[in-house]
Design goal:
Blueprint: H1 9-30, H2 36-55, H3 57-60, H4 65-95
Length: 96
C-alpha cells in the first residue's frame, strides 16, 4: 500500500473503504473450503493492510476527535481479523 498522509481525512476514508473491500472478500472466502496455501494467497492484501495499520499506529495516536475514532475502529477490526487468521493458520498446521 502506498504511503498515506494520515492527517488528511480523505485518506482515512480511503483506509476505511479499503478495509471494507478486504473484509467483504475475506467473508466470502471464509465460506469456501480452501486449502491454506490458497487462503494465504487470497488473504495477502488483508494481511498487508493489517500490517500497514499496526506499523503506523504510533502516528495515529497523535490524532484527536472523529479522525482518531475512525483509525482506532479500523485498527481494532484489523487486529480481530489478524487473530482470526492466526487461529485458522494454527488449526491448519495442527491438522497437517
Amino acid at each position: 500500500m502506498k504511503e498515506l498522509n494520515i492527517y488528511n481525512i480523505d485518506n482515512i476514508d480511503i483506509l476505511r473503504a479499503e478495509y471494507k473491500k478486504l473484509e467483504e472478500k475475506y467473508e466470502s472466502l471464509s465460506s469456501l473450503s480452501l486449502n491454506m496455501t490458497d487462503a494465504i494467497t487470497q488473504y495477502f492484501p488483508l494481511i498487508t493492510f493489517i500490517s500497514y495499520v499496526v506499523e503506523n499506529y504510533e502516528q495515529f495516536e497523535e490524532i484527536e476527535g472523529p479522525l482518531k475514532w475512525a483509525v482506532t475502529t479500523i485498527s481494532i477490526a484489523a487486529f480481530k481479523k489478524e487473530k482470526e487468521l492466526n487461529k485458522q493458520w494454527y488449526n491448519y498446521r495442527g491438522n497437517k
